[in-house]
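Why run this: before we spend reagent on co-expression, it is cheaper to look at a predicted model of the complex and decide which construct boundaries make sense. The entries below are exactly what would go into the expression plan.
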Amino acid sequence: MEDNIVAVSSALGIGAISIIRLSGKEVISIVNSIFKGKDLNKVKSHTINYGYIIDEKKEIVDEVLVSIMKAPKTYTKEDVVEINCHGGIATTNKILEIILTKDIRLAEPGEFTKRAFLNGRIDLTESEAVMDLLESKTEKARKLALNSLQGKTFNMIEGFRYKIKDLLSRIEVNIDYPEYYDIEIVTIDKIKEEVSKMMEELQNIIKESKNTRIIKEGIDTLIIGKPNVGKSSILNRLLDEEKAIVTDIPGTTRDIIEGQVTLNGISLNIIDTAGIRKTKDQVEKIGVEKSLYLIDKADLVIVVLNGNDKLTREDQEILEKTKNKTTIVVINKNDIEEKIEKEKLKNYTLVSTNTNSDAGIKELKEKIIELFNLEQIETKDHYYLTNVRQISKAKEAYQKLIEVEEGIKNNLPIDMVEIDLKNCFDLLGEIIGKTYSDEIIDHLFENFCVGK
Amino acid sequence: MIKVKYEIIVVGGGHAGCEAALATSRKNHKTLLITGNINNIADMPCNPSIGGPAKGIVVREIDALGGEMGKCADKGAIQVKMLNTKKGPAVQALRAQEDKHIYPKEMLKTLKQEKNLDIKESLVEHLIVKDKKIKGIVLETGEEIKADAVILTTGTYLKGMILVGSNKTPGGPHGERDSKFLSEDLKQLGFNILRLKTGTPPRIDKSSIDYEETKLEPGDLKELTFSYDNKSYYDYKNQTPCHLIYTNNETHKIINEHLNESSMYGGYVEGVGPRYCPSIEDKVVRFKDKERHQLFLEPESNIKEDKEYGNTIYIQGFSTSMPEYVQEKMIYSLPGLKNAKILKYAYAIEYDAIDSKQLKQSLETKLIEGLYTAGQINGTSGYEEAAGQGLIAGINAALKLEGKSPLILKRNESYIGVLIDDLVTKGVKDPYRLLTSRAEYRLLLRHDNADIRLREYGYQVGLIKEDKYKEFLKKKQDIEEVYKLLKEARITPKEDINNYLKEIRSSELKDGISLYDLLKRPEISIDNLKHFIELNYNNEVLEQVEINVRYEGYIKKANKEAEKMLSLEKKLIPDDIDYDNIPNIASEAKQKLSEIRPTSIGQASRISGVNPADIGVLMVYLKRKYNNE
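The model came back. Tokens follow.
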């Protein structure tokens, strides 16, 4: 009985399509629960199914093709599902995040191949390759663990874990030494109070991690504006290549197209969107909904406005929707007569560009460097929660704290509530590779004077 | 009449030895129990209580499996408490103050009733081993007794050494002689010998205490038993109380002034003492800021005629290795003990133990076939821990002679399983005590469900008799019936129903609901349901239903976690694996794996220093090498 695993099996952010692969006993029903289209539990094995991935609010995240492959004729000899989605980092990660809210975990490096081997799918000669793969991954993992042992990640998570460990051992000492009257009795109210502080702190760690994730994974940059204001042309010149289809017909850029630019060693993951405008066209509507969703996800929003037009209601709506984000307003087409009311934009970081010169694009890049303080970022120094695995573990840990709160709200006794707290502690241990099982007991005896 | 050949010999008559000998003889194997002094069989040389958190559940488990500790403890109980009742069902545990006269007497009576069991007074000094197989033992007289299996339950008697201040005397707790050569024999056979230490507080005359200066600690006003098969033997309205006092500045001053005269701080101790059982001088030194430490005055027996225990009070929390004259000063400084008469001074005791990593999960030693060990010799402390191991060692020695595979309890099945797995997987540095926090699935290992977890095994190995087993099956069937009844019975938001719910402070119904779902509300007890439905079942049955329904979500989660662990337990590692031949395992892991030689991937993954990547490599290696499935 193996558990369910998932991983992005194509290189992240490269290529127009990403493949998310899942393997395990319940993967079909897991994907079915976030899929809008046919009932995947009922489709035949080895079929490709068209539909949408939806999030917890039932909103569409992406248009996808889902391959269903039932055991045993699959790579791992378990049920396998592959989701072909649009190859952007933001989209792929979002889908991955949604999947990870289910009863499934992120695969370890080489784990699909390992399962293929363990389940008898690969023969002996091939297994040598698996050993090599595992070995290299193992070595890497070991070095990584060593690195973070000295790093800030370790200290930060360890510092937070210490608080849980301390609370746990105070609860444990009450349980294992119930008649020590001088020892503080940790009441449910006390747990509630401490857990609520912990939740705030862990929430901050997760938030901060998302910020510093920028360093590792780049700044998710969204280019947005009503149709035909020149978004794709700005994108192209940032990327220095023809990626987006540039046309004068509004609404031609329907897919979200991405590329990467490196600024001071930090990558900008640029997302161009279909213009936001009211539309009845179904295909484009998905693009528009996605744009609104992406505003929320982006680290930086570049709002493109037409310089030789007055601000329209649509422009103002876009500005309204981005008001809480780090935003740069680009006034495009400044080579034609300027009609835009700049005084209404005085609270924004403004850049003017036109299609015929590179000056504006250079200024745009400089503004980004300025806004994100990129000159001062020393990439080597950062050991926050830097990857999806760590952040997803931290989120799982946070979820456990929510369950502690719920347990308390439902009047459950300490021994039940403590289970979730212990799980939270273990998950945080997994982030830093600490799984020593006697930690709490050791702490207990260090801190309490108990025994006959 | 002592024969020259037995099927099984048990060396030592403490709590481990008694359970082991009863298990083998009840399984119809001719058994000899050898003890240094028949009057000290099942003696309680330290605290006068049995049970407590985790330990109390072990006693229940022993009972569920067909062992004896719970039954004797029920007979000897003079005060009983259910601990942790306010902290939830998973951590509740029974603890009984025991009469130290009655408990051993009852145990000896039980032993003497077994027709397959002989008892002999002597010391064992050597083992007879041939081709790595046990053949028998040699007594101090030089007399040889042959056996197919030997179970060592020697307690603190392997090179036992009593310490009081700078005074060292070889021997055991009652001034008995120790076994001087047996641990040398074990060393020669390849066992790593550890030196451990423990201690016990002074005993004082119960009539010399001024109880005005103490606080009364009574038992629960209820009839409670360890055994599933007993009625209670004590009068719950007339229990013997304990008393609580505290140390003070004066006591601490005396301890600090004489610190270097204690065996521990004077450097006279070689053995490693338990962390959970610090001496009073340890407490004062390590926790300088604490102004007082609590002490319980616990009676050892109500049988006045008992020469050793009839008048004594055990000062729980006051174990020390100070010289006698300092002990006197310390005791006189305590409230109510100004005129105390000391009947027995505190002492520390050092003894030899073997490295428990050299044992199999069955408690058979890896080095010598047919040789089993249980109790303090394996590095544990506590009567309950010893008894649990003794029972398992006895069962497994017998099963081996019967050509059957051993009984190995899993971590999600019992505290005994947790204990043995910890011993053989992690080993010990200081004497090991069970704690509830050592069990990762403690929600599954409750006081209330020990029979549900283990009685089946007890029946299979032949220690639970047919009639008791039938009672057990009836209980299980009743539980299923109640589930069914509650699932089928539905109530609707009628006025009288809602009025009743309001009355018992539960929220009113808006839709229909089954009684099963209603029971999930924390404020609803199964007794409340009797308002809606007739439930003519005994309380044990209803208690099971109530706990299992109310905490269903948490129990399911725990079971799921346990299943993950079990799937790794099922991946076995062959005996002949050579870790040096596996190229990609980290060297620390390789060394630990070679030393412990885990039998499954699950056990391997619990070894500290073996990380998940090593486990991955190991699994791939095993699959490749043993690709025959």
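The radius of gyration of chain A is 26 Å. Chain A is about 45% helix and 15% strand. Bring this page to Monday's planning discussion.
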